[in-house]
Each structure stands twice: as C-alpha cells, then as structure tokens.
Amino acid sequence: MLNEARLNLLKVSVGILASIFTVIGVIYSIFSNETVNTTETEIIVAKERISFQKGSVSKHVTAEISGIKQYVIGIRKKQKMTIEKYSEFALQVIQKDGTDLEPVFKTDDRLVYDIPYTGDYTIVLKCKGRATFNIMIPPL
To answer: I want to staple 89 with a disulfide (CB 3.0 to 4.6 A). Which of 68, 71, 103, 127 is the partner?
Structure first.
C-alpha cells in the first residue's frame, strides 16, 4: 500500500513538472520577440477547452484576464479557424509541436488560420482586463 502511494505521488509529480515545462515554453514563445517588463507579475491560468454546442460552428468567449490565459481547441486538418477580436489583447495560436501557427489573413480585429493537421491547438491570450472574441470553425 505504501509503494502504491509513492507511485501515485511520483505520477502526480511528473505531471506537475510536465505542466511547468509547457508553461515555460509558452511564456518563452510569447515573449521571445518582445521586451519583458520584469516588474509586472504575470498570472497564468490552466488551459480551458473550447467546445461548440452541437450543430454550432462558432463560440463567443469573454474572459477577465490578469496576465495570460490559455485555451485548447480540437480542429480537423484543412478546416479554417477565424477569430474575431472585440477587445484589445495579444493572441497566439500554438501547434502541438510548440511552434506558432501564423494566420493566412490578418487585420486588427480578424485572424484566419488554415489548419495543417488534426488535433489540439492552444490559443494563448495576454492582457490585463477583459478579452472578448468569437471563434468560428466551419465544417469541411
């Protein structure tokens, strides 16, 4: 019984370490091209999954953010993802290999992405205050 408890503790510890390395990688990719103000404290909230109601192709999201908020969304290869921003915030879409997914079309308030593979993508928002956006993924 003691060995089982130690094994469970080890599994939890490994999971926590993996999460920490993921967060460090996301932070590095966000700030690698920017000057970071080290006097500000960033708060990172755990990833929240975005899912659509059955039959829907879009979702409206509003979040109060004090630093960084991450969302994860599953998308199929060859679909297009459109994000319409209704407030000011930095946005980054990260692929499963940790690289940025660049938009194929971009204006101040609209970003369109071609999805290269089926799987989960991470959407990272950075702001202090309210972030409001709509995400649309029409069927193939």
So the answer is: 127
Q: How far is CA 107 from CA 83, 100, 139, in A?
A: 11, 18, 23
Task: Write down how long the chain is.
Answer: 140
Determine how β-strand 58-75 pairs with β-strand 105-106. Answer: unpaired
What's the rounded Cα separation, in Å, for the pair 12 and 8? 6
Higher pLDDT, 113 or 7: 113
- Assess contact for 64 and 71: CB atoms under 8 A: no
What values do phi and psi take at 15, rounded to 5? -60, -40
pLDDT in tens, 23-37: 555 455 445 444 333
This model's pTM is above 0.70: no
Residue 136 confidence (pLDDT):
97
Q: Which of 139, 133, 140, 127 is nearest to 62 (CA)?
A: 133
The residues, ordered by sequence, that sit 6+ positions from 134 with a Cβ below 8 Å of its Cβ are: 58, 59, 60, 61, 83, 84, 86
Q: How is residue 118 written in tokens?
A: 């089926």
Residue pair 120/114 in contact by the 8 Å Cβ criterion? no
